[in-house]
Design brief:
The protein starts with a helix and ends with a helix. The protein is built from 17 helices and 4 strands. The protein is mostly helical. A hairpin with a 4-residue loop joins strand 3 and strand 4. Helix 4 packs antiparallel against helix 10, helix 6 runs antiparallel to helix 8 and helix 10 packs antiparallel against helix 13.
């Protein structure tokens, strides 16, 4: 059968994006089937085969897949090895965590003051909330950064705006100075370290090392069991991952994606051809920072707690390892790598992997998991640079129906009938 895409290129461009890229449709279908399957097997809406804690693990894994997509877009396609994207991930978590803590504490304070002889004033309620939240660090007043914490819409806007602005400013300063390669990686790591060290301080306004806790309790929904809430977040995480994958696939499929790959392969030549390399890199860096923040905003309500250790530079290094193991430069590879490492890590560090007794020494996987992960990264780099996603190259592709005399010296040359089209 003749391929209408090759015969009618204008017709091909008019077709919907998802039909022109069947791999995206396959991914969305697999994600939908996975979500439906977990829902049916869950305790909240199904037959109870999968525990609530494992449903939360799966939901968090979907969020990690989303931030891995962002990392693959900025590193695998644009060539920017950012070691700071987990900082944006954490900022998204802090932004939504501030509202969750405020709203939940407000309910507790209002209920406790309801028995007072006189109705409490708004200032008394505000002081009570501040004391409840910041008493652990010896404070009793709201820092300025909590000015919008009472409003869910404003905090949701902060999930996007704050990391987006930070990435925009940082990227503009770095890219206009034409910092590239390992020096840019060091700069992003330094940014992450500075942010982490600042948040560890008690006067940072975010409770220092204590972080924000109790995030799994949705305000006003105390009667809803966690088995149901976990499924809600699983659905939200799956939807975000599906939309994120669709967005990233759309970005890399057109002219913008071609320029991104060209910047990755030969930045100087792209600049010589007249393209604004800095504008492309800044756009990708900012977009992926926002995607990472959205993933963090969905991750930490399922984790229940966030603290500055989550933003430490090692977290961003882990992110790069996930993408490398999955196969950078392949969107599905980033998803596979993040899901694989996350689930295997849960198995090893959760005490489910049996210890290995060597007689003279007992290997406890809780302690040795990071070593195993590092060795896996080295092995993939040396022996399988395409990662797990590279296994898809072993799947035989259909041979195109090419007829006519060859117009070149070898069998892969343009054919006569192809030239006529």
């Amino acid at each position: 059968m003749t391929d209408t895409t090759s015969l009618f290129p204008k017709y091909a461009k008019s077709r919907p994006f998802i039909t022109r890229h069947p791999s995206v449709l396959i991914f969305i279908a697999c994600l939908a089937l996975f979500t439906i399957g977990v829902t049916i097997l869950s305790e909240g809406f199904g037959i109870g085969v999968i525990s609530t804690s494992f449903v939360k693990t799966l939901g968090k894994t979907l969020c990690l897949c989303l931030v891995a997509l962002a990392m693959d877009l900025v590193w695998g396609y644009c060539g920017i090895l950012s070691l700071g994207h987990m900082a944006f991930f954490g900022i998204g978590g802090y932004a939504i965590g501030m509202w969750l803590m405020y709203a939940r504490t407000e309910i507790i304070v209002v209920q406790s003051l309801a028995a007072a002889p006189l109705p409490p004033t708004p200032q008394e309620i505000s002081d009570g909330i501040a004391t409840q939240i910041f008493g652990v660090v010896g404070a009793s007043e709201f820092p300025p950064i909590w000015a919008l914490a009472h409003s869910l819409p404003l905090q949701l806007a902060a999930v996007v705006v704050v990391p987006g602005l930070l990435a925009l400013i940082f990227g503009w300063l770095a890219f206009r100075s034409r910092v590239t390669g390992v020096y840019l990686s060091i700069l992003t790591q330094a940014m992450t370290l500075a942010l982490s060290l600042y948040l560890f301080q008690n006067d940072s306004g975010l409770r220092g090392n204590n972080g924000l806790s109790g995030l799994q309790n949705l305000p006003g929904l105390d009667a809803v069991p966690q088995s149901v809430v976990s499924i809600w977040f699983l659905w939200a995480s799956a939807l975000a991952l599906g939309l994120g994958y669709l967005l990233c696939a759309w970005v890399v499929s057109g002219k913008f994606g071609s320029v991104m790959r060209a910047i990755r392969d030969d930045e100087a030549r792209v600049r010589f051809l007249g393209y604004s390399v800095e504008a492309y890199k800044l756009t990708v860096f900012t977009l992926t920072a926002v995607i990472a923040a959205v993933a963090g905003a969905l991750y930490y309500p399922q984790a229940g707690i966030i603290n500055p250790a989550e933003i430490a530079p090692i977290a961003s290094i882990y992110l790069a390892v996930w993408v490398a193991i999955g196969g950078r430069g392949r969107l599905y590879g980033a998803v596979i790598g993040a899901a694989f490492v996350s689930l295997v890590s849960t198995w090893f560090t959760g005490g489910q992997a049996p210890d290995v007794n060597l007689g003279f020494y007992t290997i406890s996987w809780v302690d040795w998991w990071t070593v195993l992960l590092g060795l896996s990264f080295v092995a993939v780099t040396l022996f399988a640079p395409k990662g797990i996603g590279g296994l898809m190259d072993l799947v035989p592709a259909g041979t195109p129906d090419r007829h006519g005399a060859a117009l070149g010296p070898d069998d892969s040359a343009l054919r006569e009938k192809e030239a006529d089209k």
